[in-house]
Amino acid sequence: MHRHEMPVTAEPIKIIAETDDMLVVDKPASIPVHPCGRFRMNSVTFILAVEFGRTGLRIAHRLDRLTSGLLIFTKNIAASQGIHVQMEDRSVRKEYIARVAGEFPAEQIVCSEPIDCVNIRAGVYQVRASGKHSVTSFDRLSFDPESNTSIVHCKPRTGRTHQIRVHLQHIGYPIVNDPFYGAKSTFTGKDAAVEYGKDDALGPAFADECQKQLFTKCTTLPDRPWIDPKCPECWLDFADPKPEDMRIDLHAWKYEGPGWKFATELPFWAKDVTVLPADDPAPLCGDNPAPLCGDNPAPSTVKTPPLLW
What we know:
By secondary structure, this protein is α+β, with helices and mostly antiparallel strands.
C-alpha cells in the first residue's frame, strides 16, 4: 500500500522565534498545518519533525492550507493550556494582510455578520443569521489602479473558520485568488446553499474543483520504485501546479497576547506597502468589560518570550 499526496510549494518553512515554551514559524501557503485528507508528509508538523527535529509540538492555532504566515506551536502542556485560555477569552490580538479585488474604501469597515457552515462536506461557510457571532475590522493600506486591487489590514476580533475570507466576500471585496470565496469563485456567498446531507451543488465536486490538478494518462508505467500497477493513480502523470495556484493572498502577519508578541515579514505581494498600521493601543481584554481587564489581564501559564517587533 502507498499514498499519493497532493503537491505543495518548495518554499521552506522559516523559524521566526523559539523559547522554552513556544516555537513560532512562518508557514508558506499550500502546506496544511497537520496531516489531513490527502496530506501527511506534506504538512507543517511532519516537516518540522523530519527536517528540523522538532517533535511533540502542540498546535496553538490553525491557518488554512492556502494561507501563509505566522503559526505558533507550544512545547508543553502548561504552555498549550495557557495559550488556549488566552484564545478562548479573546485576549490574543491577530492581524492579517489580504489582497482584495477592487478599490477598498479609505475609511475603516467593521463587519459583524454571523458566520455559519453551509456544507460540512465541502467545508464552505457563509454569512447567515443562524451563524456564530463574528467581528472583523478592515483598513486599506494601499490601492493599485493598474490591477484594481487593494492591500487590506484585517483584524479578526473572533476566531471563526474562514472568517476573514467570508467577511471580505460579504462586503464586496473578496480576496483576488480565493478559490472558495474569491472574485471568480463559483460560490458567491449569496447562494441559498442547503445543509449537509441534501443534494446540492456544493458537495465533493465543488471541493475537487477548487483543488483540481491537471494530468495525462500514461500508456506505460513510469520506472519508479513506488509504482503499483494496480493503483489507478500510478497510471496518471500529474502536472506540477503553478505557484499562483497554490496560494491565496491572505497572510497571518502579527499575533500578540499578554506578555508576548510575534510578527513575520510582509508577503511578497504586499512589499510595496509604504504606510504600515500603527500598533493598537487598546488593552488586550477581548470581550470583557474594561474593569475586568486592561491593566489586570488574566494570569497566563505561558512564559514571556522576547518581543520581536
